[in-house]
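As a warm-up, study this chain.
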Amino acid sequence: MKTILYTCLLLITTISMQAQDVFNQTAEGNWLANGTARIFSTSSKAKLDGNTNKIGSTFEVQAGPKVGYFIIDDLAIGLEVFVSLTSTNLEGVSDNVNTNALFVGPFARYYVYQGFFGEATVGIGGSKTTTNIIGEQKSNIFGWRLTGGYNIALGNHISLEPTINYSWENQKPKDAGDFTPSTVISSFFVGIGFTAFL
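Now compare it with the structure written out below.
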């Protein structure tokens, strides 16, 4: 009798587990939330006539939260906010160069095949650079980023996502004449982050 009872209990448990819906992370109507944080410490040196001289050092903190909504299966659109704080100390100069930047833009992410996805972001922002000697300089920013990544599910609602990224950014000083050159920055980098699906 106990054997029959245990067999029935095991059968009911197995059927009920199989009947439960597995959460589809990229289904229409779901949300995604992602956060990225990076910390950089860079030291610059120049080598001249066999001598190596330190030019300066830079410390930078970046943070970029984003939220998206799946308008159809596998396609999410949303908004990203990116903040950057940078402090540069040039050798032989007592004054630090401090830059704060804010970038806001929409993004679209499409999951192509078995966890692989592509993402595009475009946006605008501004930066403010301050030094005691020169004063304050504000700039307008326009930029875009292309990302390729892979979704490694750690559970129904959390994924680890390694990415490869290419970004392009144009910084134009405010209140500058038409002949003032803008700064163009292009970057290629890899990243890893966590994404929550709700």
